[in-house]
């Protein structure tokens, strides 16, 4: 089992093991189950207390599903999600409700995640109504405190969401997530719906709150440059599985998995001289359907370095360098440079005669 948190110090706050989220497919007049969409298929990682883990990948790879499954907004198909010592996947409804205050979520679209019929004060105070028996005066004081923390003027307390800009609405969502003093927050592409000029303000706010309150983040995004700015470690997802999990600087300086290389080759360089020498890795073909993933490695249908082994044997997420985990037959502990030679597990598999 790959322990994704080994590079960080301290104790993991979040431990995910073999997480699976399969959504059934029904067809026919009798609506019988004919298959399943394997949105997340065996994901494992740790998030250390006070750390930000970035989760990146192209649209449809399962990033948001992972975030929602961690907070059990979906019922898990398989695996475990241990947050602060408790397996969220097995908690009873009452126990899960008691657990909610310490784990919260900031949603992607602030317009869609805020009730248009509620004022700002009512939106931020709703978690307090649900989980505390505080007096109205204490709730109001807490709402004002939260507005101050996220940079909203207290005079806006009785305004409605449509009266705010996109950046202000996202600040409302962040304030609502902070209301019950959580330890762990899933940020599900919190800047995707914002103007570029506002994105940096929201990310800087998240970083300041982390430093002040000791928060732990799972930061889901497809903006690789922003992930590089905020994350301590980065997990690269492809078709429901983690392809590579590495410290931020190591990943951006020298990605090991072929998909991570292709993904990072698309990031523009600010330096014109470096941009002129940047070599794009263009992947051919389309992403396979998660309802019918390919045999062996999920990436084998598009990988420029594919070997016959890749089409038969599913690679496991393995530590190939201290703190770096890769799911690729071409990258082993002795050849982390990504040369096309099978690792020890592959050679052993061949020797057993299980492949033609």
Global Rg: 22 Å
| Helix content estimate | 25-40%
Strand content of the residues, in percent?
15-25%
Largest sheet: 8 strands, mixed
N/C terminus separation = 28 Å
Mean pLDDT: 87
N to C succession of SSEs: EEEHEEHEHHHHEHEHEEHHHEEH
Q: What overall form do the CA principal axes indicate?
A: globular
So how many helices?
12
- In spatial order, strands of the major sheet run 6-7-8-3-9-10-12-11
The count of DSSP E runs of length 2 or more, i.e. the number of strands, is 12
Structural class: alpha/beta
Which spans have pLDDT < 50 for at least 5 consecutive residues?
1-8, 337-356
Characterization of the model:
This protein has 356 residues and is α/β, with parallel strands linked by helices. It contains twelve helices and twelve strands. It has helices at residues 63-70, 93-99, 110-113, 120-131, 136-150, 166-178, 196-213, 224-230, 248-253, 258-264, 272-277, 344-351, and strands spanning 12-27, 32-48, 52-56, 78-83, 86-87, 103-106, 184-188, 216-220, 233-238, 241-247, 318-321, 324-326. It has an eight-stranded mixed sheet with strand order 6-7-8-3-9-10-12-11, with helices on both faces. Strands 2-1-4-5 form a four-stranded antiparallel sheet. Strand 7 (184-188), helix 7 (196-213) and strand 8 form a beta-alpha-beta unit. Helix 6 (166-178) runs parallel beside helix 7. The two termini are 28 Å apart. Mean pLDDT is 87; it is low at 1-8 and 337-356.
